[in-house]
Structure formats: structure tokens, C-alpha cells
Amino acid sequence: MSHPSPAALLEHRGPALLLGAIDAFDGHQLLCTSRGTGPWRWPEILEGAAQSAGLMAGMQPGGPSATAVIAEYRGVIVHAPSHAGTIRYAARLVRRLLHFWRCRIEARSVDGKLLLEGEVTLSPKARARA
Amino acid sequence: MDSEDAFTSFAVHGGQARAVVRPSHARRLCEGHLPGDPFLPGAHLVGLMAEVAARLVAARSGPASALREVVRCVFLTPVRPDVEIVVTTAEPGDGRAPEPSLVDAEVRVRGAVAAHATLRFASPT
Fold it and tell me: pLDDT tier at A66 (50, 70, 90 boundaries)?
């Protein structure tokens, strides 16, 4: 099954668009791949993971648009301060509370090494944060 | 890697650090985020807080302070690149048992808190 391009769903452009492709979506978890091979510092890896969560939440029934913004990060473990190479992102819905969507996020290298993991809470853009 | 310092000023006093983000750096972080309505991505705000916090930890405990965890970071208002962005960090003062690896951080614009975080660094050896 083919999936739309992240560029078609996200407002991010140029260097801010960190996702190149959606690889899989089963309704609960979204897997996607970085746009390019970096090198990436951990804030960029975190931003890519947040973008994957934004896509995942936006593809839920009744979810916020894919332009949702970040309300909170929680328990984000930085396993690697930087990485050179393609990154695989995974985002899974943990819970929904009112307008907020909390997702579990992971970023891994292509050989499966865990780079970063944690939780991100998204909110609609009208309640915009970051 | 950035060729210029992300901050125009940085100072440590007591257990606190204060830094002002260089405007050109803030504009660069906003490139493509988002066209027509630029504001700093949350992950980069966390990165700025972590950078100032790392310098504070280094001033307190010596070099080689690596960020281990963003324990929590909350975003209250969008941070635009065309205003002065001030990052402050301090050791937690909320009554928890002392944990030298924790640092509290804030981003302020126009005197108001736009984001705040608690960060965990590698414990001093």
C-alpha cells in the first residue's frame, strides 16, 4: 500500500522538513524514514520524531490536522547525541485527552540502534506552542 | 556544525545561567518552519535550553556533561525569531531531594515564560 508523501501532509518546508517517506501505517503506529542522511544532532532527531507523531495523529479518525504543534515532551531519552545516516522513525498513539494527543516516539538507525525515545503531546495549531 | 555561537551573551552567576539567543541563529532555526508563520521548533528550543544547561553543569562540575534525558518540556507560547529570546537555567528548587544531574531551564520572550523544561545530564564522575 502506498502512502502520501510527508511533504504533502506537513507544512514544513526546506531544511525544516525532516521526513522523506511514510513506510507503514496500521492505524495505531506509523513508521517513516528521514529525508536525507544528515548528519543529525539530537534536536533534529527529536524534531523528526515529533513530525512523525504529527503525521500519525493527523491520520487518526478525528485527529488534529497534520499541522498540529508540540505541547510537551516527556521522558525523552537521548541515547545518541548525533547520528550520520538514514533514520527510521516510529510513532504510536498512547492516549487522547480532549484536544491533546500523546504519542510514543522512537528514532533508530537503519541497523536498529536506538537513537532517541520518549513521548510527545500534540495539540491543534490554534492552541499553538512549538 | 554551527560556525557561530548560538548566543550573543552567556553568564553564570551562582547556580544560574543566562544566555541571549543570537538573532541570526534563531532565524536559521526557523527556516521552513513554517512558511508565512515562522516560529522556532520545540525540539530546537529544548536544544537551546540543553546547551545553556550543559554550560552551567560544566561550570559547576567540569566538562563532558552530556544530556541524558529531557525529563519534561512544556511549550506555552510560540517563540518568534524577531524578538529577544532569553534562556535561563538553574538547579531545581522545588524541594525534591538534591540530584546534581538535574537542571531546570526556561525560555523567555518579552519577560514571559514561553517554554520550561527539566533536563537530566550525565552524573558527574
Answer: low
- Which residues, 6+ apart, have CB-to-CB distance to B41 below 8 Å? A16, A47, A50, A70, A130, B29, B30, B33
The fold for domain A6-123 equals: Thiol Ester Dehydrase; Chain A (3.10.129)
The ipTM (two decimal places) reads 0.93
List chain A domain ranges.
6-123
Chain A residues with CB inside 8 Å of B115's CB?
A: 129-130
Contact A12 B69 (CB under 8 A): no
- Predicted structure pTM score: 0.93
**Three cell numbers, residue B58:** 560544566
CA torsion through residues B80, B82, B88, B89, sign: positive
Q: What is the pLDDT of residue B52?
A: 95
Spatial neighbors of B125 by CB under 8 A, at least 6 apart, are: none
Kindly report, residue by residue over B46-59, the tens digit of the pLDDT: 999 999 999 888 88
CB atoms within 10 A of CB B98: 7
